[in-house]
Amino acid sequence: MIVVKVGGSVGIDLAALCQDIGELVRNGQQLVLVHGGSARTNEVAAQLGHPPQFVTSVSGFTSRRTDRETLRIFEMVYCGEVNKGIVEMLQAQGVNAVGLSGIDGRLLSGRRKEAIKIVDERGRRMVLRDDYTGTVEQVNTSLIELLLENGYLPVITPPAISDQNEAINVDGDRAAALIASSLKAEKLIILSNVPGLLRNFPDESSLIRQIDAAQVGQFMEHAQGRMRIKVLGAIEAIEQGVRQVVFADGRIAKPLSAALAGGGTVIG
Ligand code: ADP
Predict the structure, then answer these.
(1) Pocket of ligand 1 (CB under 6 A)
(2) Rounded to 5°, angle at Cα 107 from 178 and 224
(3) Relative to the CA of 199, which ligand 1 atom is closest?
(4) Taking the domain 2-267, which CATH number applies?
(5) pLDDT (tens digit, 9 = 90+) per residue, 216-263?
(6) Using CA atoms, how far apart are residues 129 and 148, in angstroms rounded to an integer?
(7) What pLDDT, in 10s, does the model give residues 164-198?
(8) The dihedral of CA 194, 139, 41, 57: what is its sign?
(9) Structure pTM?
């Protein structure tokens, strides 16, 4: 069993991915798909007059500012347009996909951050208290297994649900990492709009092909912006027993087959 996370950035070819999944599933591959939707959420939020904002935590991780209105737009795009779009494409491939958010059946549950400490552009520290973001702490593996055992392919998206039963925006890469370790998956494949982890971003010829599992922490220095969370997710997955994590290109034909054949950055 493998867990595949596909990002929501510009350039990712979801149709090519779904076609590839169709072929792999027909050849007996069992998998769970986790997806994002960031670029489309930015567009829709701007169209609805609530433009996206991003904040950087004091520890240097960037995340979407998620007030109540943003959460509403986030759900429209992630759980609506993107999730149902993927399910429709997989159904067209003969794959019986079921789309679920982390709220459904408490698939992904965790803690809402009471306050997030951020640094603004001028380096000033601030505390946000009305943000609906958090961290996934538990995966309802029995719900996922129920689907897999009955021949369904789960298509999972944030948000997650908090202990106080609020929807919370959680990072998709870290959620996928916890799903992979909780399901004891052999591999976690993270598809994005880059060929993998680049030593000198954005130079695509500087792709790092192999990272020893014990050394992955040292590679954080190469990651900037959003890539930092992916590296963090990879570290968490490896620490929790996933044998291999691959960062691979989601813009190409047969993106998953290419990643399974050794393409991208292989960790482990
Ligand atoms: P997704 O939406 O696919 O989850 P993100 O946009 O969140 O992807 O994160 C991937 C982005 O990280 C890339 O598009 C790239 O702009 C950025 N990035 C920063 N540093 C690196 C690096 N060293 N190697 C690859 N990508 C990097």
Answers:
(1) 7-9, 36, 38, 192-194, 197-198, 201, 222-227
(2) 40
(3) 23
(4) 3.40.1160.10
(5) 999 999 998 889 999 999 999 999 999 999 999 999 999 999 999 999
(6) 39
(7) 999 999 999 999 999 999 999 999 999 999 999 99
(8) negative
(9) 0.96
